[in-house]
Amino acid sequence: METPLVLHAERLTKRYGRRTALTDCDLMIPRGHVVGLVGPNGAGKSTLLQLACGLLAPTAGTLSVLGSRPAANAAHLARVGFVAQDTPVYASFSIADHLRMGAWLNPSWDPALAKRRIAEVGLDPAQKAGRLSGGQRAQLALAIAAAKRPELLIFDEPAAALDPLARKGFMRGLVEFVGELGASAVLSSHLLSDVEQVCDYLVVLCDSRIQIAGPVRDLLASHHRIAGDPARMAAAVEVIWAERGRALVRGDAAARDGAAARDAEPVTLEELVLAYMSRAAGAGAVPRASAAVAR
Amino acid sequence: MIRMSLRQFRIQALVGAFLLVLAAIYLVRLGGDIRAVRDTSQLPSQYGQTMLFLAAGFGLVPALVGAFWGAPLIARELETGTHRLVWNQSVPRRRWLAVKLTVLGLASMAVAGTLSALLTWAAVPVDQVAGDRFSAILFGARGVAPIGYAVFGFTLGAVTGLLVRRTLPAMAMVFLAVIAVQVAVPNLLRPNYMPAERVTVSMSADTINQARALGSITGGPVVKGVEIPDAWVTNTSRLLTPDGRQLSDAAFNECFNNAPKTGATGRFGDTAVCLGKLDLHVDMAYQPNGRFWPFQWIELALHLGISALLAAVGLWRVQRRVS
Fold first, then answer.
1. What is the pTM of this model?
2. Which residue, A206, A230, A248, sits at the end of a domain?
3. Phi, psi at residue A68, to the nearest 5°?
4. Structure ipTM over 0.90, yes or no
């Protein structure tokens, strides 16, 4: 009865007027992962996630989430939790009001979960949401999204505006919820450290296109850093990015058997992402890709 | 979703209820005062101005409802980004909007209905004597028509907020637009709800002296404010000569400026006598007072219909593209 795919995009394209935010994206993400969506600012991450929760409609192509059109109906809305960028809340509502709202608007609402979470992060239910700090607001938004017990949680740059401590607390909460609910999660970020900590599946989005997607373990196994001239490498090896006599290449077996086999070294996730971003930037797109990846 | 709508509406509802209570107290006392007047023939002269003033103020109700209840309803969500929170709860966007429109639309109707009922009641003795509740201004402050205005103002406000996406500009636009509609409907639409009755009235010196004004700023043989008993005059032609042509400006100005002195004492004195001798007439269109209630229901239906169309636009729009 259940489709194994959390997200399934086919030639997904979104344009805002003349600006293209997503171009022909194909994506098949299975269930059970915490997916990190990384890329420089303006790459289209937020667009992809807003398409996934139905806040936007695609210009062309299709996207299905948990097997149906995003936000298709009330039942489908209940299966997807979304924490929007900047974690909007109602300033005039207290935290308790927000939990009440959650109960009113979600048949699957878990009041105990919401209350426990609010207590755990030390929030006062009587406090007005307009007076919360960014970190507290994010925790509230997370609690609301999680307490409807969705199968998929989507986070759009949830921690971008938070200080390191608040970010750490938020990320911990996120991981706990995903575990407790048995949910899948998709999380966009331009902060690689967040993604490295919590994600086991990676999607790199640059210049409105998907550069690479896959389980982190597989990606790390299939990419290597090699010293030497890329031109002399085996044909089966795809050079992702080369500079100063070193190259990051893709191709598992080939790298070991090739001429440069002795020098093949494992890569870190950061190197891998930077290589794809640099390649996308070098291909005539925004040359600020690597600068935007802050650690 | 109903409870959510009510919760978000709480402060505006309290302010509205407070103002409603103030207005209700005033109207009840006014009704009492009016009924305390012994000589009812004095009522129009005593309370006629108050009635006009109240009717004009009443015209602000739909504009206020539209600006303060309608315009922020969706615009504020879009402005603060909270639509991204609420649209990701398990309530489809269309239902979200439909419930909000219904709850606040009903509240608007209740407010306007209460005010109109009280004002209509308070004014009964004055209206009975003056017989002018069908006139362009008073009509909109009696009966069921104000309910339609309020719903229209609210729906226009909500949908404008959805399209404009910013609260303050939407509020200002809606306020002005509703007032413009309030002016346009009595002058352009209402006279045509039913075919007007027509009559030719000869302009004797006496008839002219009963008019409110002669001439106009732009010149021309105009007579204003000629009344027909038990009817709302919707159109009066210019002064016409016996052969049906318009009286020339020269002849009109001659009477207006250089009428022969006769010692006449009417409102327009010698001018009236001078014009009266020319055997003039005007063609008038009017709606008999018996059509007051049919017109009330037509006006209500018209505004409800436009509101339904606006709501449909909003429901279509909210699903299509926002955010």
1. 0.89
2. A206
3. -145, 175
4. no
